[in-house]
Specification:
alpha+beta, 3 strands, 20% strand
Length: 87
């Protein structure tokens, strides 16, 4: 086996023509794979996880200011708490 050409990139997957192709250190192989999805598809989830508690907290403050009870919609109730008075 010959040593890799001088200045050749290390073996691994490289982007080529809208897909990924494997370079074995000497030449391109026939192994191809679709491009991996970018992490930008998770941006809406991160926005919700960051701003969700802030928005729900503000809604709770507004409800408390009016004198109403407020229960977070995504909270698990492990202990039964007070119930809202009948209107």
């Amino acid at each position: 086996m010959q040593p890799p050409p001088r200045g050749a990139p290390p073996p691994g997957w490289y982007r080529q023509a809208g897909a990924q192709r494997y370079w074995d250190g000497m030449q391109w192989t026939q192994h191809m794979a679709p491009l991996a999805r970018s992490s930008s598809s998770n941006i809406p989830l991160w926005l919700f996880l960051f701003f969700g508690p802030i928005v729900l907290g503000i809604m709770g403050m507004i409800s408390a200011n009016r004198g109403d009870y407020y229960r977070y919609p995504v909270a698990f109730r492990f202990i039964k708490g007070p119930t809202a008075p009948a209107k």
